[in-house]
Write a structure and sequence with these properties.
Radius of gyration: 61 Å
Shape: elongated
Structural class: alpha+beta
Strand content: 15-25%
Number of helices: 28
Length: about 850
Amino acid sequence: MTRSPITRLLHETGHFLLGLIALALLTALCFWLDFRLVSTAFTYLILIVLLSLADGFIPLVALSFIAIVCLNYFFAPPIFSFRIEYQEDIVTVAAFLITSLIVTSLVRRTRAATDALANVVDGIPALIWKTSPDGSADFSNQRFRDYTGFSSEQLRGRGWLDALHPEDRKVEELRAALAAGEPFENEVRIRSANGDYRWFVLRMTPLRNEQGTIVKWYGTASDVEERRRAVEALRDSEQRWQAVFEHNPTMYFIVDEAWTVLSVNPFGAEQLGYSVNELVGRSVLNVFHETDRASVQRNAARCLERLGQSMSWEARKVRKDGTMLWVRETGKATLMKERPAILIVCEDITGRKRAETHLAEAQRISHTGSFAYDVASRRLIYSSEEHHRLFGFDPAAGMPDPKDWARRIHPDDRERAVQRMEQTLRKRTDYEVDFRIVLPGGTLKHIHSVSHAVLNPSGDLVEIIGTSTDVTDRKRAEYLTEQVFERSPDLVGILGRDYRYRRANPMYETFWGIAAEKVIGMHIRDVVGKEMFDRLAKPNLDRCFSGEEASYAEWFNGPDGRKYWFVTYSPLRLESERVEAVLVIARDLTERMLASEKLRDAQMQLAHANRVATVGELTASIAHEVNQPIGALVTNAHAALRMLITEPPDLNQVHEALGDIIKDGRRVSEVIDRIRALVKKEPPQADRVDVNEAIVDSIALTRAEILKSSVSLETQLMKDLPPILGDRVQFQQVVMNLVMNAIEAMGAVDEGTRELQIVTGQEGEDQIFVTVRDSGPTLKPESLDRFFEAFYSTKSHGMGIGLSICRSIIEAHGGRIWAAANVPRGATLHITLPASREALCL
């Protein structure tokens, strides 16, 4: 082990101090025992020899001289003096010094030789150990200990076998080999300190004495892991190569200089429809298309001229059944058994050729051409047929001159397009550019070009490849869209997720007084105001950003006064499924709303007039309904007076008469209330209406007409019918109109009974229905088609507005009304209305 100078100095200093202490103790002992000079010198010499086994050379030399001083001072007469009187004492001291120095030097050399031998043994790139004749180890080199992580003690005896893999630790075979006394070797696995096993060649050689008896066995183990891996890799490589050649789904041929097939893999032969034996020994030219044989021969000849260099070409091969396939062949000539041969790898490119055909067709359909520009020659080296056609060149005429390509670009765009190309050449980056081209006939096209910079391994730009697409139609569409956007009479804007405008059309300046270019970047709150933003804009924008369409219509005050706006919010997914922006369109419907309100007022007036007219028609019936309770009321009043005059008055009878008077008075009041409700001019109400109750009240008003017209009335009113949400007066108007129309229609029929049936019911959970069925005249199909048209009537004296108003009322309530002809005569009017949601919840 190599030590640092400081460590070595400290080590030698420590040994020197220990030696000095030992020398002092020995001196005291010898002096106490009264040893003579010679005896003491001999004792000192023994100490020096012992210390030489552990100390360095310099400390021992120093101790030798200190020992001379001690011999002279303590043991050579006169003692306690450095003077020596006797010559023999001088010889003794000198002999001691010389002997100690010689012994120290010999021990040093022996140790140095031992250390050198140990270093040699430890430096040998092998594991080395020594065993007794029975195989028990008594020595192992440092490399053995370092590799296995075992100590010298762990490797002693049979411990060295523990480093071997359990499957290689064959003790009986080892004993047999040792007993045979002959050198042997074997490949075994030895475990490293980290637990991994590596392969070693283990060799054991015996050492014999003069009598031929084995006294030691020397063992070495050399690491052959890499060699085994290399051998296995070579074996695997050979097997893989054979497997590749035999089973690879690629066609392989080996041909000689006379084009004779020396070898072909089974897959290649199968691809051509042959067996291997059918192709080996035949000319390879026989499997090529007749028109391609000459070019294949030329390419193969060039391969033979350039041994070791690969060449590629494309050709057509003909299968045994006559079908054809395209192949890309890569050939490389080499020497096999000192004769030239060509190894040919054939790639089936039939699909690629077909794809190229499809690509050319796709380019033609999409008006997209591809090109390649060589930087060194500064010219196009490839242009697809469609690319030629885009620029007005004939693909069959070859590659046009670079100046001809440039002249096709519109003069106003030429400099910009060239600058983008030059920028790519300088910065070696991809780019996109739009420009116009002018064809020889004057036709103008818009081109979108995308280019990619191709760099070599050194980072130098060598080529630019790209596509050119005819985007004329898209540009026209963009122009038209822009015109619609700019000239639309609506407010049109696009807002981002930050509620700021990205685009706005000129109508913003017309309505808000803010120039469109200034609106861009503004927060919508700053345009429409905080109140409108918080109440309407933000909630609808947030709905839209979550993916929903949103809209609202409302009156609000703007710079130009009170306006009615209909606003729609549409999500825009620009780059992903996430809504990135919102298209906002606001349309001014003020004039339409005002006209609509006037129309509603006119309809209300008309409906009111219709109700008044209906009441007018029912005058006789109403008078009859009123006269009956009034007549009864007068009669009961006279009876009460008579009963009061009698003596004594019959108060019980008077009480009953007065009760009848009150009841008849209420009947009169109810009739008047019904009439007043019909003729009252009030806006429609949205209340819960009991359909059956409204029908009963309507029948009560028309009962006299029903009786006068000899009509048989039948009602089938469903119990617990859910109410509807609407206006009771309007619904009663519809029922009365239908009943009066039925009565009038049946009045024109002389034969048969006059039957009127009113039915109510429920369809599903959320719909109710009402049907009014009569036995009037048969309706013609053309009458059914125009039944609800305004100013159309089947009656000679009718105005044709009653049923039209009925349809408007029913549709305003979210329902539907239609007519159907009965068999053999008459008609049925059907009404469906949505039930009140509150009633359904109950």
